[in-house]
Amino acid sequence: MKRTYKLNGKQRKAIAEWNRTIPFDFMYIDEINAGRMSFVKAWHANVTWLNDWAYEATEGIDLQGCGMLKNL
Asked: 35-71 pLDDT, tens per residue?
């Protein structure tokens, strides 16, 4: 059975760049190829997830005493 892909060349290039620079694989490729999600929605969902992850990861770090909380 031949598989049909919905991603165009520029979208595949953007995903490859994402995967090269960000330590988390781009999500929802199967959903895009199955026609259940657009590339635009998948891109925004990935960016939102990454932003949320970074916020949650850094929010829990104790910055007391390291000079980050001083008034400049």
From this structure: 999 999 999 999 999 999 999 998 888 888 887 766 6
